[in-house]
From TrEMBL:
SMART domains: PAM (SM00753), PINT (SM00088). Belongs to the proteasome subunit S3 family. One of its GO terms (cellular component) is proteasome regulatory particle, lid subcomplex. Pfam families: PCI, Rpn3_C, TPR_PSMD3_N. It comes from Amanita muscaria (strain Koide BX008). This is PCI domain-containing protein. Residues 1-26, 471-480 have a biased composition (Basic and acidic residues). Keywords: Proteasome. Residues 1-33, 471-493 are annotated as: Disordered. One of its GO terms (molecular function) is enzyme regulator activity.
Length: 493
């Protein structure tokens, strides 16, 4: 019996080892492409869109691993030799070498089932992303994008909607890299109207984001705001689309001086964004605007944010801006702005950073008001590096009116008298202390009353009085009946 049990355990261990070895073997990019095509065909035949969504979730990682030879081999193995869709697909790929061609011919397998049009569009999407990876093939990618859009519109299949949403993003990228993004705007507007009429939420969300990116790219913030007010973003869209939508809204609201809404939109974009290692570029772009909006609102971002491994290098210039705003040094702010102006213009944050000049000046004036009881406007110009005393007087007056500092400007003598700092004593402090003492005494009195007069004590007194009345009635009844005499009751009675 022990030997049999030992053999059984050995067999189970061998089976588990073989199962683990099978699970650990990852699929090659070619096998993954073929597997995805089979899943798409299965989704179309069984009317189960979850298989297409499973394929699209792997698109970001797969497009980085495939190249021309892998896509060509996949097309050769998926399609029969004389299939009408095979030649147009292969025509978008560069001419292969002899080794790749012979290897592809040897690995051709005629499929028993004809691939669906959704599979063809998926392969076109892989080819499009592959063409967008090199600047020399941008024009060819734009031609492929236009023909793919025409094919999708001609087919008009609802099972193709999830893949079409990804295709529209690739089309927008092809127009942008080809420096023809303005030409794509009528195409996107027409497609967005069609998607709204068909209730195609995924395509509609993708196209709204493409239009917002188009308007923001050309600084057409008024048109972007009109698009936001006239359209309703689908609530059933995925988190990546929602993250992009909130990111563009945050940028629009920040330019329109609506910093509170911009801050909340950028927060939503960060919450719904993919992990930092999955999409580091988007994570960095959102944080650049998020930091500037916080500074414009008067807050200072946390220092730990600039130590994040994904953000540390990308936010080094913005960290210097934060230090200049916090210290109130206008010279340091101007030096940092001129030093990293090229990066700020590339990030499209230069206009927002220029607005921080007033915040830096306000911070410097607040520090001066805490250090001096009286300071001349000329000294303020020298310390804050302002142009003239008139500018200093205007800025100080605005800071006093906004409540940033307490004081007044003596125009005849040319100085600013700062409000005296409140000490620990005075009429205001004694009044506040008196209110607190009164509150504590009232609380003490109420506690004593609650202890002295317990809750519902009057009910016990009523019950006792009712019992006394009942005893008096019984006693009077007995006297009337003659059971008791007056001498038996007592003299007082």
């Amino acid at each position: 019996m022990p030997d049999a049990e030992a053999k059984k355990t050995d067999k189970t261990e061998d089976k588990s080892k073989t199962d683990d070895s099978k699970k650990e073997e990852p699929m090659t990019p070619l096998q993954e492409v073929k597997h995805n095509v089979s899943l798409i065909d299965r989704a179309v035949l069984t009317l189960e869109p979850r298989f297409i969504h499973r394929v699209l979730r792997t698109l970001t990682s797969l497009r980085k691993k495939v190249d021309d030879s892998i896509i060509r081999t996949a097309i050769e193995e998926i399609y029969p030799k004389d299939h009408p869709a095979k030649k147009p697909l292969v025509s978008w790929l560069p001419e292969p070498t002899m080794d790749v061609d012979t290897a592809a011919r040897l690995s051709i397998t005629i499929s028993l089932q004809e691939p669906t049009p959704e599979s063809e569009v998926y392969l076109r999407l892989l080819i499009l992303y592959n063409l967008l990876s090199s600047p020399s093939t941008y024009e060819k990618a734009l031609e492929l994008a236009q023909t793919t859009v025409e094919k999708i519109q001609n087919l008009n299949r609802r099972s193709m909607d999830p893949i079409a949403a990804k295709v529209w993003y690739a089309v927008e990228r092809a127009y942008e890299l080809g420096a023809n993004l303005a030409d794509a705007r009528p195409l996107f507007l027409a497609a967005q109207r069609t998607a709204a009429l068909r209730h195609d939420n995924e395509t509609q969300a993708s196209l709204i984001n493409c239009l917002l990116r188009n308007y923001v790219y050309y600084n057409l913030y008024d048109q972007a705001d009109k698009l936001f007010s006239k359209t309703t973003f689908p609530t059933s869209a995925g988190n990546p689309q929602l993250a992009r939508y909130h990111y563009y809204l945050g940028r629009i609201k920040a330019v329109q001086l609506n910093y509170s809404e911009a801050h909340s939109n950028l927060q939503q974009a960060l919450r719904r964004a993919p992990p930092p290692k999955t999409a580091p570029g988007f994570y960095q772009a959102v944080h650049k605007f998020f930091i500037l909006v916080e500074l414009l609102m008067g807050d200072i971002p946390e220092r730990s944010l600039f130590r994040h491994p994904v953000l540390e290098k990308a936010l080094s210039a913005y960290f210097e801006i934060v230090k200049a705003v916090r210290s109130g040094s206008l010279s340091q702010f101007q030096t940092t702005l001129s030093k990293h102006s090229a990066q700020f213009e590339a990030d499209r944050t230069y206009t927002l950073i220029v607005r921080l000049r007033q915040n830096v000046i306000k911070t410097g004036i607040r520090r001066l008001s805490l250090s001096y009881s009286r300071i001349s406007l000329r000294d303020i110009c020298v310390k804050l590096h302002l142009d003239s005393e008139e500018d200093a007087e205007y800025i100080v007056g605005k800071a006093i009116r906004d409540g940033v500092i307490e004081g007044r400007i003596v125009h005849e003598k040319g100085w600013m008298e700062c409000g005296s700092q409140k000490s620990g004593y005075g009429p205001e402090v004694s009044e506040m202390f008196g209110r607190r003492v009164t509150f504590c005494l009232d609380l003490h009195n109420q506690s004593i009353k609650a202890m002295r007069y317990p809750l519902n004590a009057h009910r016990k007194e009523l019950a006792a009085a009712e019992g006394a009345r009942e005893r008096e009635r019984e006693l009077a009844k007995e006297i009337q009946e003659g059971d008791l005499d007056e001498d038996d009751i007592g003299g007082d009675f």
